[in-house]
Amino acid sequence: MLEDIGAKISSFFSGKSPQTPLRLVVGLNQVDKMIPNGWDKRLNSPTDEAEKVIERRCKDIIKKLSKNVAISEENIEYYSALQRYRLIPLLTKIIQNAYAGFKLDNVKPADPFELADQEVKAFAEQERQKLDSKTRTLEDIKKIIPETDLKLILDKLQKETKLPPKVAVIGKSGVGKTTTINNLFNGQFKTSPTTVGTTEAQIKEFTLSTGGALTVVDLPGYGRSEAEDREYEKIYQDLIPSCDLVFLILQADTRDFSDDIEMINKITKWLKDHPIPKR
């Protein structure tokens, strides 16, 4: 695993990076609503039976979506922001598909056990402490990356800290954008949100629990009216190409994805027209 990370980092800085990622991840949120009474509140997780049903239904949705959009199933993940369920798989997807995605490596999602019963929370913390050994240390990296390359990497990373990764978050109203941002990135606002023009789009600066910073472009929701969609599309086209990643959130427990499919295809085109963020 460490060798793979080293190879990816070295190739990126040497200019031999593989194909530029599309910079788009689609998330199916609110899977906890799929199965009534299927959530174990004591453990803050679905029951075994409910988890199987959620997985089966979400995989079916993902398969159907991928047939109608210009992205693969690998760009789609399911989760519950409210219950902090499957945030790590989602965050992994984001890191893999973001432009220069390693910049997000220090992001740690909110702890799902914080919502569990106290004894469960205490047990989880004990087990976590037993396994808490950092393997991706600087000394480990030095063993697999030449010193000259390592210096270049560290210089680049130092420069990146002055320009935080930029993530656009978009979806219909009520899909849980705010909850997703709060729990997925587990960050605190560093500055007051900046409204873009007279729209509902906001630029939010976060400080992360593990250090570093993140810029989130919170875009207005689509699908409420054709007039609003036309107005907001101008904002989307202006802001999305400048982002390292676009995270589009869908509501998992719905049957109508027509607006979402249309938006995914539009965003895909905009990103393909601008394969590198317009910084």
TrEMBL record:
Superkingdom of the source?
A: Bacteria
Domain G: residue ranges: 166-267
Looking up Pfam families in the UniProt record yields: MMR_HSR1 (PF01926)
Task: Enumerate the InterPro entries for this protein.
Answer: GTP-bd, P-loop_NTPase
Q: What is this protein called?
A: 50S ribosome-binding GTPase
Per the UniProt record, the source organism is Planktothrix mougeotii LEGE 06226
